[in-house]
Specification:
The protein has about 950 residues and is an alpha/beta fold. Helices cover about 50% and strands about 10% of the residues.
Length: about 950
Amino acid sequence: MTEDLTPAEAYAAARARNAEQATALAPFREMYDFGLDPFQIEACQALEAGKGVLVAAPTGSGKTIVGEFAVHLALRQGRKCFYTTPIKALSNQKYADLVKRYGHGKVGLLTGDNSVNGDAPIVVMTTEVLRNMLYAGSQALSGLGYVVMDEVHYLSDRFRGAVWEEVIIHLPESVTLVSLSATVSNAEEFGDWLDTVRGDTEVIVSESRPVPLWQHVLAGRRMYDLFEEETDHGGRGASRREVNPDLLRLARTENSRTYNPRDRRRGKMVREADRERERRQRSRIWTPGRPEVIERLDAEGLLPAITFIFSRAGCESAVQQCLYAGLRLNDDEGRARVREIVEERTAAIPTEDLHVLGYYEWLEALERGIAAHHAGMLPTFKEVVEELFVRGLVKAVFATETLALGINMPARSVVLEKLVKWNGEQHADITPGEYTQLTGRAGRRGIDVEGHAVVLWQRGMDPGHLAGLAGTRTYPLRSSFKPSYNMAVNLVDQFGRHRSRELLETSFAQFQADRSVVGISRQVQRNEEGLTGYREGMTCHLGDFEEYARLRRELKDRETELARQGAAQRRAQAAASLERLKPGDVIHVPTGKFAGLALVLDPGVPAGRTNGHRGFEHHDGPRPLVLTAERQVKRLASIDFPVPVEPLERMRIPRSFNPRSPQSRRDLASALRSKAGHINPERHRKQRSAAADDREIARLRTEIRAHPCHGCDEREDHARWAERYYRLQRDTKQLERRIEGRTNTIARTFDRIVALLTELDYLRGDEVTDNGKRLARLYGELDLLASECLREGVWEGLNPAELAACVSALVFEARQSDDAVAPKLPTGKAKAALGEMVRIWGRLDALEEEFRLHQTEGVGQREPDLGFAWAAYQWASDKGLDEVLREAEMPAGDFVRWCKQVIDVLGQIAAAAPKENSTVAKNARKAVDSLLRGVVAYSSVG
């Protein structure tokens, strides 16, 4: 080709090559044995040009190359780069990758568990660590040139998302931000915000997957393609795709053969035919079992595979099912290699703990190439599974959806058992975004030609719905940012109240709220144009029709109000009459299914408390239990009594009366008819309407009749236009209230938090008090509760194990919040301190209610959970792992995770506690040492 170039073109090409060689990107590209994709080159060039970048691309597409280029630039320029990740496992993984490239001396790691070479020019850390450094004004920030925020879409997370926005807002302007995100449908909006708060930011969106993805449904023995073969199966959404007609036909056939209970009337021959047809159908179509799925994938060369099961127990059960089925995916050489790696990685774990952790059963499954992966596993065990999977020594992993969140563990195939998962409150369909995240693991770049997503057939499956999940990119990034107490004192300390308020108004949450206001504002403008037209339509040549319409509307409103008052008065009179009833009263039920003579057995008005409220203020009024003249015992409602009811007679109810006995009911009903059957109830006289005597109504009617427009021939036409006018005006005012409610929402919440902290003497204007400075060091959901406990000396005099038990209540949250069993607690001082913590929380909760700070809005202090106190106490008291786990009834992974969170908060308390006349700081450090042993101390780094 170069021979065809003119001398001028050849010279220009040579200059371009020389210019490229002079860039930082050229030597960086040589570090990789594959070429960079266009989106990676574009992002790297933007970074080298001094711009920030937002890269949104599918899972497995190589976004981290851009983050690694930021590391390369920082080292080349003699500056620092912080590489942040949302989870510790990702930090550990990225640390290992960077150490392999740059060596231990240039790379550090800072997480809640590990601190390795924190002064290195490249430091990998969790996002919370960077947030805390920014608030503390850490010296480590000097010389910082680049911050990489991996998995930045985590800012949608309702529990931790605010941390990402805090970091983005508070990073010094001199720092270049590299944001790496999964493909989101509003990347441009997020980029616009980054441009606003961080300066020039390039948004680079890549829709194409590096490895094409095939979508399948496995039904019985057959694997169906989800989409027709001749269409674009490689990408997702590159062109219009049709659902496989064979799959649609299967769904129609399967759903039409669902058993119909009305067929029971058609006789035995029909039922036999149905059963035979069902047997034949089941022989062709069924949901394959887990071992069967793995065998099928193995036979078709589709392993390694990750099967997503939205349950920890389901993952463990799947492994057992594969073992019982005799599944073996490794040869003898693979088995030996697995055992060698596992024994090396678990050498530090004492033998007695291995038995408790189910090590030998776990190892047997690994040797066969099968494993589970979920949050309940010991972190070391999870890391071993990840390593073996990447090496190809584990070929079938059964995992919960947490594996999809960033861990570099791609597979050839991904299997979804169901399209429904438990979201913490109910079973709900997975979203297109979740489907994209899960199936994004399929297809290993540089290894697989294509990836495969396999959904197992389930009764009632709709292929159209599945195709919608597979073909829709509706994964919008939604801010979960809310101010917290700790955030408030740190902001006020650094910037003062006014500047802090302005900073919060630059959050992505407020940016999105303001953007949503734009659409509402446009609707208000359209409504105002419509109001002008309606006003013209109701113009009358005789006078001011707007005034006349107002009088008519006031009359209508007054009549409606009086009618409502009258109805409410009648209901109140009826309820009061029911409250006066006593057992033995004979009444006449005026209406409803049980109208007629009845004997009151129970007035239905519990004494003292009713439906949770004092007095008789329950929502549906008294509900008397009566015996009707037709021998029925029924609980009536206030709706059966539109008018007051008075007793007609009194009767004695025999002590032996049993409402469940037909004979008892018959005898008492007979006595009721004999006693009062001849009495005719007094008809309720209709009261005179309040409107007839109302002076306001009389005045309005007089003014209406005297108004010039009253005599207009087109009066009712004008009135119809006026009605439309006022209806649209009412709607417009509602929209304006919505605009007012969305504008400055974050700042208004901040104002309420500041007011509460001022009340508690954490703030005095722009001054942060000593109490506030203590709160500034406490990060966590219950930051204010922890600070109040320190202020009131609740933890003074506790030994380290007792302190660990109390601090556990600040971090622990039971997976099943509705568990009614009272948790086991340590006795003595610890129990008293835990009780005091709950009392302080109650006081804070009442104060938050007073200042209109509600947990439902993501602000405020939840009730401390005492469910981990006994386990933390036992472990800090040097009890054995077997005993602690057995009594806690908790998986090892959960136990380790909660212990590490307790350790993290104990470290904060040690830093925040008073240094004089206090034992808390010293005992907090001792408690950390007591907890940091055995399985909790096993570290994946160093």
